[in-house]
Amino acid sequence: MAALTVPIIAPLAAGDIGGNAAHVGYFVALIYVGAMFSSVISGDLVSRFGAIRSSQVSLLLCAAGLACCSYGTLWAMFASALLIGFGYGPITPASSHILATTTPSHLMGLMFSIKQTGVPVGGALAGAFVPMLAVSLHWQGSVLAVSIACLVTAAIAQCYRTQLETPLEPTRGSLANLAKPFRLIFEHKPLRDLALCSFFFGAIQLCLTTYLVLHLTQVYGMGLVAAGLILTATQAAGIVGRILWGWIADRWISPRVLLSALALCMAISSLVTASFTPDWPLITVIVISICFGATAIGWNGVYLAEVARLAPPGKAGVVTGGTLFFTYFGVVTGPPVFALVTQATGSIGTGFTLFGFILLLTGLSLALPRRQPKPS
After folding, report:
1. What Pfam families would the database entry show (predicted)?
2. Candidates 1.20.1250.20, 3.90.1150.10, 3.40.50.300, 2.60.40.10; CATH matching 2-160+176-367
């Protein structure tokens, strides 16, 4: 919710700040740049200070970033984005650490998927309440209100610290600790495969949410309101998908095979979306968009549960932080690459075609059988 508050109030804030509302894309990119680097050190923070304490610090950083935004200057916005990003990065590794130590193995996929619904739910809350707050409290008041909500949540988390915190590992910060997540990932091929694939998963997820409305209005000829409703349907499908795929991964299909199938479905959806023309039936466009959202937004829970399962004992937070570096890197680089392809070809469909073929290769690589280590 904190990460999406500023993009929502951008049209109101742009005049006071002296910028262009379209520049909010740079703000979002800076958030994920901050999240990339804070996710790498998050495993070390969880080991030293605990998952709940790390989550509280993350909330305080988000609150500080939103408060900084209320100053209404370009430099304040720059600092705001980085602070929110630094707070965004450790949240998932910390929560993965808690779930990895408290969740029965046969419920890992489902519980991680339920946890990951917090992301689209937070976006829905931002979309529902931030505009109303901005109308009644001005845009500065709306960001301060969300900042206070972060502080209240951090205080509530204190009530569960004793119950959920695991024994701490007092260590000293060092460059070796910064490299530890990457060392753990690249020493284990299954983890390395998942981390690299998450780069493309993260890229297509943000490309879908960034460019679908533009594609539907400019290529398919749909009205802005109707295109916005279809984007909402894709987000809702992502919420349902996150829970559904986690439940399936716990019962019928191995997580790696399921992630391969989801990647192939993303690829097909992206390629079909690229083919939209005004002649297509509306119901077909809606169904394809929902399938696209259910897969491109719904993969996270299965992925994070598998990362936690493959991580060495007690290292779920460290490994998750390392893999999220690649995920956020995809989020940062995906939309700019999509934009460059679109500008070079003059077609948004070309961007969806390119990423469709990339996801096709990603899905096939995950489907390849893993080599079993030779017995020593």
Report:
1. MFS_1
2. 1.20.1250.20
| Cα–Cα distance list, 326 to 149, 258, 350, 361 (Å) | 29, 20, 24, 17
pTM of the model: 0.76
Helix or strand holding residue 257 (H, E): helix 255-274
Label each residue of 260-317 as H, E or C. Answer: HHHHHHHHHHHHHHHCCCCCCCHHHHHHHHHHHHHHHCCCHHHHHHHHHHHCCCCCHH
What counts of helices (H) and strands (E) characterise the chain?
16, 0
Task: Give the pLDDT means over successive 10-residue stretches in the chain (376 positions).
Answer: 83 75 72 88 83 93 94 88 93 86 84 84 80 86 94 93 73 60 85 91 88 84 81 86 88 90 95 92 93 91 87 82 88 85 87 94 83 48
Which residue, 303, 239, 296, 243, is CA-closest to 268?
A: 296
